[in-house]
Design brief:
440 residues, 14 strands, 13% strand, 6-stranded parallel β-sheet, alpha/beta, 8-stranded parallel β-sheet, Rossmann fold
């Protein structure tokens, strides 16, 4: 639904440079950094960059940083020393096992054990039960597990549903990382007060877009500009199967035989993917790099012929923005939040349009002028997103949350998230949300 349309109030969106301010009153803020470890993905990058920016632009607050948070996600390899050092940040508590973490975070005396923070911000899908005085802010990334259960595992689906439904019952504020996620959340939980759901965009992890980066070892001998790139965890929702199918069609039509590079770690439900690539006769043409470092990812973005992001469903679509920051010509799906990120700076296609993707590859392969146009547009679009603006907006939300009464808890939705009726309901909500976002 467009901002200001009937049914939803105007959406306040932050993350665009120059659109927010920072208040001055100091608070004790508890912040979940549990997914910011060495192998972090989208949720972890959001929390990592946000706390780094908050410590810089809102130093009047005291921050307690939680390396474990709840009992849904647990990373035993989290650093023992504070990775965000400073006089205003504390790091802990540490837990050696998931059982220790569960015992701590589900304690009825949790607020006291945390030192009575003014506010706690949950970032890893888990949500604490009702807090008596502490304000609870909860980040909603996406509700893909509601829209289509086959994109994830049963364990993950259940954990995500429990967390987000508990947040709908108990959170004082919701931070949605896109307008699409905000719309889907409010369609799924219509009783939640819409004025307490604020859009704050993530931004690129890369501070310096002039950095050259480091060529991955798997691309030894491949010239800069001599490969197609697709970044993302290998899982059904990221739609790599269709990307490979489109690439096969592109080659069959005489497209330049430059490799397709799939950069991302192994996710779930795609264990046989490498074998599928081999059976298509593309084993020598498709490079699966596995998880890449930030330096390697920067090199890949900077030197690709084009960045292809054909995801079926996103909460934001960070690889689109980061590729654009490095000037990568971009082909992306028009699904969910991706048009918010890409603006007019990408070629947007339906995520099931394999034929259209093959044609786009053929066009860009031989049209240097079009690639240059898209590259210029990409850099201009990426420059609109700024971590300082997003962090300042979040600091302002914290101040607002502390200044008004806590929200009265409500009853969470109870249905089993594997119930087919709920999944049908979720699919209908997803489709309705997409229609509303596409209205002029």
């Amino acid at each position: 639904m467009a901002p200001g349309s009937a049914g939803l109030p105007s959406i306040v969106t932050f993350g665009i440079a120059g659109e927010s301010h920072v208040a001055e009153r100091g608070m004790h803020i508890g912040f979940d950094v549990s997914q910011t470890g060495a192998n972090k993905a989208g949720c972890g990058y959001f929390a990592h960059a946000m706390i780094e920016a908050l410590l810089t632009i809102a130093p009047q607050h005291e921050y307690s940083l939680y390396p474990s948070f709840g009992d849904f996600y647990f990373d035993a390899s989290m650093p023992r020393a504070n990775p965000y050092p400073g006089s205003r940040s504390r790091y802990g508590p540490h837990h050696r096992t998931l059982e220790e973490a569960r015992s701590f975070w589900t304690s009825p005396r949790l607020e006291s054990a945390l030192g009575q923070p003014d506010l706690v911000h949950a970032n890893n899908f888990w949500c604490p039960a009702a807090l008596a005085t502490t304000r609870l802010v909860y980040t909603v990334y996406d509700l893909a597990f509601v829209a289509e259960p086959s994109w994830t595992t049963e364990v993950n689906r259940r954990g995500c549903w429990e967390g987000v439904s508990r947040a709908a019952a108990n959170a004082d504020w919701i931070v949605a990382i896109s307008k699409a996620s905000r719309t889907h959340f409010l369609e799924t939980f219509p009783a939640f007060p819409a004025e307490r759901v604020r859009v704050i965009h993530p931004c690129s992890r890369f501070v310096d877009d002039a950095v050259e980066g480091a060529r991955p070892a798997s691309l030894a001998g491949i010239d800069p500009g001599g490969y197609w790139l697709s970044v993302g965890t290998i899982e059904p929702r990221k739609n790599q199967r269709r990307v490979v199918e489109a690439y096969a069609r592109y080659l069959a039509r005489g497209g330049e035989r430059i490799p397709l590079v799939l950069a991302g770690g192994s996710g779930w439900l795609m264990e046989g993917f490498r074998g599928e690539v081999e059976r298509l006769g593309l084993g020598a043409q498709v490079i699966l790099t596995g998880y890449v470092s930030d330096a390697e990812l920067a090199w890949l973005y900077r030197h690709c012929r084009a960045n292809v992001y054909f995801s079926l469903f996103e909460g934001f679509g960070l690889p689109v923005l980061e590729g654009m920051q490095f000037g990568a010509p971009t082909i992306a799906s028009d699904s969910t939040s991706i048009p918010e990120v890409a603006g007019e700076a990408a070629l947007l296609l339906k995520p099931d349009d394999t034929e259209g993707l093959a044609n786009a590859l053929l066009v860009l392969a031989g049209d240097a002028n079009e690639r240059s146009r898209l590259s210029r547009a990409a850099r201009a679009q990426a420059a609109r997103f700024d971590w300082r603006a997003s962090a300042a907006a979040l600091a302002a939300l914290y101040e607002e949350a502390a200044s008004i009464p806590k929200r009265e808890p409500t009853h969470a939705l109870d249905p089993d998230p594997t119930d087919r009726r709920l999944m049908t309901y979720g699919r209908k909500l997803y489709e309705r949300a997409l229609r509303s976002l596409r209205r002029p």
